[in-house]
Amino acid sequence: MAPASEIHTPVLASEVLACLQPRTSGLYVDGTLGLGGHGEALLAASAPAGRLIGFEWDHEAADLARRRLAPFGDRFFLVEASYADMRTELQRLRIGKIDGLLVDLGVSSLQLDSMERGFSFRADAPLDMRMDRRLPRTAADLVATLSEEELADIFYHYGEERQARRIARFLVRARQEAPVTSTARLAEIVARAVPRRFHPRKIHVATRVFQGLRIAVNRELDNLVRLLQDAPSFLAPGARICIITFHSLEDRIVKRAFGSDGAWQVITRRPVEPSAEEIRANPRARSARLRVAERTA
Ligand SMILES: C[S@@+](CC[C@H](N)C(=O)[O-])C[C@H]1O[C@@H](n2cnc3c(N)ncnc32)[C@H](O)[C@@H]1O
After folding, report:
1. At the topology level of CATH, where does 115-218 sit?
2. What's phi and psi for 227, nearest 5 deg?
């Protein structure tokens, strides 16, 4: 396999460093370590003594990041768990307060490009979509067991798909004929359900359905809400939290949480977006939005 640095390009990397302003005596947490791109930059910027704890629940990514960050020795520590459990995991490590937190949400290129993980409709694969294979239910399980109404809600609320009800109706009819267990079959059912004139021009017709299922399988919004509720308890006064989101549902949750109580002072009134140059070099950065807040004293 290619080295981690060639698999996934970190987005808004210089903007994250400018906002976190890592110090050499600081303790930082990367909640979504992924392939360790941002992690490596944080460790380099806080040399020679800054420390980083990385959370990553995808075993394959965690392994690659561990290898990449090995040269930093005991300045780096990996926790293979959900960032939603950060509060208890930090308590377990006897860590009181941290000096900065980064969360880069979404899917890594490793996950998107590993066809057998089932995140993409570009190849036929089992309909899995679990970022952490310890999670109890795959996308195929949800498609097999949820009611038509529950599926429609997932497509509508998490996928922002306007044809949600129609797609759910087609899907429930299709699963009565044969179980829907592959990405290609799901994509084909969605394509049949949506009338031709409503097929989007710029994205695949199944994109939103896949996004909705992925969010449901990984409970992505619940995890984010939990982290934002807990974060004030373990960020030191003056410490910053940087969150990179990839769709409006996540961005709305972050914006609301930063504005909701006295715990945060908002640093970015408007979200920071990647430059045209960054998008040209890394098209997957195009929907990234960075919001930053500082823990009040
Ligand atoms: C966009 S990638 C991060 C890439 C990383 N910043 C880098 O530079 O390589 C998002 C990562 O977050 C991980 N992730 C998503 N939700 C998570 C959660 N609840 N707990 C831990 N890791 C999570 C995914 O498995 C994925 O590897």
Report:
1. DNA polymerase; domain 1 (1.10.150)
2. -60, -45
Residue 113: is its pLDDT beyond 90? no
Please say whether the beta carbons of 254 and 291 come within 8 A. yes
SS3 annotation, 20-35: HCCCCCCEEEECCCCC
Q: What is the pLDDT of residue 98?
A: 98
| Bridging pattern class, strands 98-104 and 235-245 | parallel
Strand bridging mode 76-79 / 289-295: unpaired
pTM over 0.90: yes
Nearest CA to ligand 1 atom 23: 32
Q: Which residue's alpha carbon is at the smallest distance from atom 4 of ligand 1?
A: 34
Distance (angstroms) between ligand 1 centre and the Cα of 31 equals 7
Atom of ligand 1 nearest to the CA of 9: 8
- CA-closest residue to ligand 1 atom 3: 34
Q: What is the DSSP letter of 155?
A: I
Give the span between the Cα atoms of 228 and 159, in whole angstroms: 22
Q: Where are the domains of the chain?
A: 4-110+220-295, 115-218
How many whole angstroms from its chain centre is CA 239? 22
Question: Using one digit for the tens of pLDDT, what is the confidence trace for 256-269?
Answer: 999 987 899 999 99
pLDDT tier at 292 (50, 70, 90 boundaries)? very high
- Residue 132 confidence (pLDDT) above 90: yes
Q: What is the CATH number assigned to the segment(s) 4-110+220-295?
A: 3.40.50.150
Distance CA 131, CA 55 (A): 13
How much distance in Å is there from the Cα of 36 to the middle of ligand 1?
Answer: 9
- Mutational test site, ligand 1, from 12, 28, 33, max ligand atoms within 8 Å of CB: 33
Output the residue whose Cα is nearest ligand 1's atom 1: 108
